[in-house]
Amino acid sequence: MTDDAPRRLRVLAAMSGGVDSAVAAARAAEAGHDVTGVHLALSENPKSFRTGARGCCTIEDSHDARRAADVIGIPFYVWDLAERFREDVVDDFIAEYEAGRTPNPCLRCNEKIKFAALLDKALALGFDAVCTGHYATVVLREDGSRELHRASDMAKDQSYVLGVLDDRQLAHAMFPLGDTLTTKAEIREEAARRGLFVAKKPDSHDICFIADGDTQGFLAKRLGTAPGDIVDESGAVLGTHEGAYGFTIGQRKGLRIGHPASDGKPRYVLDISPVDNTVTVGPAASLDVMALTAIRPRWCGRPPTAGPATYTAQLRAHGGETEVTAELVDGGELLVSFTEPVRGVAPGQAIVLYDGSRVVGSATIATTERVARAEA
Predict the structure, then answer these.
(1) CB neighbours (10 Å) of residue 274?
(2) Which intervals of the chain are annotated as region Interaction with tRNA (predicted)?
(3) According to the annotation, is 21 in a ligand binding site?
(4) Structural domain contains residue 76
């Protein structure tokens, strides 16, 4: 073996039961690594079958992961992290909505479960890396540090939900799908060639712990009804709601307002106030945001240099990029201003900064500054 030959690693492959994680585990094994598959049991009451389930937390998913591991020829285990998942992801999700914010549970899961609880346990057992089916790339620099970059195929890039990973976590992360220019159809074809049963299995959707996709119903069962008013920007009551937690900034449908706006145009949710339990609605133009303040920044590798700098930013998992100027100020707040107004920005969401394809880091949006509108 030459000095520059790749080192054989002990790899723990997180296998959700889907096609991406199965192919990622297969590629890691094919590359010569010592791979062990593990399925994370995250639901305290998993559904037996996927009928009506849109996530990846069913008993059937664990069976699919086991069958894939058998085909690949690697050991397989199921680890119960349901209690940790409930505390760090589900309870946090409910509390954020109750506080009038819009969280992203996928980022929280990557930060607290897959690259914290799972990674810590893996390292304690002597593994070198955790492998997942995410589409992103880890680049090793000459100085030994690592950077997180977008996937080679932007159509499948998932770096946004990995923007919470720090330098230590990146040092033990492996994403075998991130540097290949292949379509999802080609990944499925590869799975079929490898004899993986999950080749034609549908992708999971939305929030894994809300099996039917009904977020409002899920929250209502846990938070109960809390009737309040739906008001316009002047404070005039337009209707009522059964819980402010059932709304998100930028929402248009399901407002249940009895009469149209005077200009005949749609109204959107502009603000959610848990203090007085009101939901404020208004025209689309009132959603325009020019700046925001974000808290709890996490840097993917080296932190940004001092002072304001220009980046691109992504504000949702499947959103586009926008040019921003960002600066970290005393107290750990990130001040961000946009070159052009953006819409649908809600407290609780994550903003992820990029320098080219490199993920600089992420932070949680705390407040937004809207564009001032001249009164008609």
Answers:
(1) 15
(2) 156-158
(3) yes
(4) yes
Amino acid at 26: A
- Give Cβ neighbours of residue 4 (< 8 Å, ≥ 6 apart): none
Q: What are the distances in angstroms from CA 40 to CA 7, 57, 61, 203?
A: 27, 8, 10, 17
> Is 119 or 45 the better-scoring residue by pLDDT?
119
Residues 40 and 181 placed together within one structural domain of the fold: yes
pLDDT at 374 over 90: no
The CATH number of whichever domain residue 107 belongs to comes to: 3.40.50.620
19 annotated as belonging to a binding site for a ligand:
yes
Number of domains into which the chain is organized: 3
Give the integer Cα–Cα distance in Å for 184 and 200: 11
Q: What is the pTM of this model?
A: 0.90
Structural domain boundaries enclosing 342: 286-370
Half-sphere exposure of 355 (CA within 13 A, CB side): 14
Q: Is 17 annotated as a binding residue?
A: yes
Looking at 57, 106, 208, 300, which residue is catalytic?
208
14 is in an annotated binding site: yes
* Residue-wise pLDDT tens digits, 111-142: 999 999 999 999 999 999 999 999 999 998 88
**Backbone dihedral angles phi then psi of residue 184, each to the nearest 5 degrees:** -60, -35
State whether 280 and 290 are in the same domain: no
Would residue 258 count as lying in a domain? yes
Q: Is 70 annotated as a binding residue?
A: no
- Mean pLDDT, residues 352-374: 90
300 as an active site residue: the answer is no
Residue 271 and residue 309 in one domain: no
Point out the catalytic residue in the list 56, 57, 106, 109.
109
Note the Cα 366 to chain centre separation in Å: 17
| Residue 208 is a catalytic residue | yes
